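request received
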Amino acid sequence: MTRETLRTRMGWLHAWVGFVCGLALVCIFTTGTLAVFDTEITRWMQPEIPALANAQPTDIALDRASRMVRDQQARGMPAFLVLPSARSSVLEILHYDGHEFVGDILDPRTGATIPARATAGGKFFYDFHYSLRGGGVIGVGLVNVLGTGLLVAVGAGIVIHLRALLPDLVMLRLSVSRIRSWLDAHLLAGVLFLPFTVMMGYTGVLVHADRILPATPLATIFRHDAAPARLPASPLALSPVPPLRPLLETARLRLGGRDCGFILFSPDRLGIFASDASGPFMTRDHVDFGLPDGRVLGTTVTRGPVATTLQLMHGLHYARFLPLSLRWLYFVSGLCSTAAIASGMVLFLMKRRRKSGHRAAFRIAEGLCIATITGLPVGILSFLWGNRLLPATLTGREMLEIDVFFFIWAVCGLHGIIRSCCTTSPLSGWREQLVATAALGCGLPLLDAVGDATAWRQWSGIHAGIDGMGALFGVVAACVARRMKDRAA
Amino acid sequence: MRRIYFSICNRRPQLTRDRAKRPPTPAIGRVRALAISCLLSYLVAHLLVMDIGRMVARHGNGALSPDATQLGYMIAIGCLPLLILACFGMWVRYRGIIAVGILGAIAALAGTVLP
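response:
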C-alpha cells in the first residue's frame, strides 16, 4: 500500500472529481463555447432575415414595435423590446418561455414582422450551458455545484503539478507511448488555459451564487411558512406609449452616452436599459419614464467598488462587450479548456483499462465518456442539420430542433454504452461516432449551400465561420477515426 | 477425488477462511473524507456569506445592503474550493478538518456577536 501523502490524495481527488464532474463539464464548456457566438448561430439558423448593415430603427418601426408589445402584454404575455445592436440589426419583441427568450423579429426600417422560421437558435446553447435545460433552481444549482467541482479539480491539479507548471508548457511528446502523449496534451491545454478556466469557473459560479450559498440561515430554507393571503391584484390599465425616439435620446444622455439595449414596459412606466455591449461592466443601469407623458421618473446607476467588481466579473463571463477578434479568442480558449477536461477523462480510462477494463462499471463509464466526448458533437451537428431539414413553416419547429438534438444524443449515448459493454474492441464505439461527426461536419457547408444561397451571400462571414468550423471539426474527427483504425489494425 | 481424499484423511478438509476484518480500502476512506470535507467547507462558506453581509452592513447605514451580500459571495465562492482542498488534503492527524472547523467556529461565533 502506498504511503498517503498530499500529492497522492490530490491525485486521487483530481482524477475522480475531474472524471465525475467532467462528464457534465464537457457539455457545459462545449455549449458555453458555442454560446459566445449565440447571436451569430441564430442568424445562421434564420436565413430568411436580410442583412441590414447599421440599420437604425426608424420612428415608425419603434412605434409599431411598442404597439405590438402592448398588444402582447394585453394578452398576458410579459414581452419586452430589444433594440438593434452591432451583432443583431433587427428589432426583437421577446418573452421568456421557461428556457429561452423567443418572439417576433421586426424590420428596423418599417417595423414589419420578418417571416423568419421559428428556431431555438444559439440561445439553446446558452440555456443548456447555464442550466442543462433543468430549470432555474435544479439545473442552475447543479451547474453551480459542477462549477465548484471544476475549481476543486483544478486546484488539486495545480498542487500535483506545482513544481512542473512551466516545463509542462513545452512538453508535448506525441511520438512516445500513448498514455504519455495524452498526458502531455492534457497538461499543455490545462496549463496554457489555466487562467481562462479558473476565471470562467469562478465567475460562472458567482453569477448564480445564491443558488448554492443562500444568504439566509439554512434552517429557514426548509421552513415553509404559510404565505400571507394575497389580495387579488386589480389589473392596471396599460397606458399608451409615447414616441420612443426622444425617450431613447434622453436615456442615452442620462446613461453617460452608452447605447440602449432593451426596453421594459410596465402598465404605467417604461424603463430603458443600457446595452450589455456598451462596456466590460455588465450593468442593469436604466432610466425610468412615466406613461403616458414620457416624463423622466429617475435614473438608476449602480456604483461602488463591490458592485463595479461584480459587474466586471459578469461582463467577463458573458463576454457581450467583446469585439469579434476577442470573441474568437474566447471561443478558442473555451475549446482548449474543453479539450483539457476531455483528455483528462480519456487518461482516467486509459490508466484503469488494464486493471479494471473487464468490469461493468468501467464499461459503463467508458460508454458515458463516448456519449459525452463524441456523442455531444454529433448531437450539436444534428441540431444544425435539423434546422435546415425540418420544413420552415412547421409549427413548433423550435421544439422539434431541440428534440432532434436530444434524440440523436441519446442514441449516441446508448450506442456508446452498447459498444463499450458488448464488444471486444473498446475503440469501436469511439470510432463509429467520430465517423458520424466527420460525415455531419463535412456535410454541413454543402447542406447550407444547397439550402439557401441568398443567405450565404448576405451573411457570408457568419455562414463561412459556422460552416467552416463544422467542416474543420469533421476533418479533425475523420483524422482521429483513421488514426484509431490504424492502431486497432 | 474429494471422496478419496475424505477416505484417506478421514476428516473434513480444512477450508481456510480469512476471518480477520479487512482494513477499509483507501478509496472508501477517501470518499468519506471528501464528503466530510465538502460538508464542513460548505457550512463555513455559508457562514462567511452571512457574516460578511452583516459586518459590512453594520459599518454602513445599518441595513443589510446587496453590496455586502455580494462581497460575501465573492469571498465565499473563492474560498469554498480552497477549504475543500485544505480539508481533504491535510488529512494527517485531521489537521485540515481541525483548521477549517476552527474557522467555522469563529465564523459562527462572529454570527452570534454581530447584529
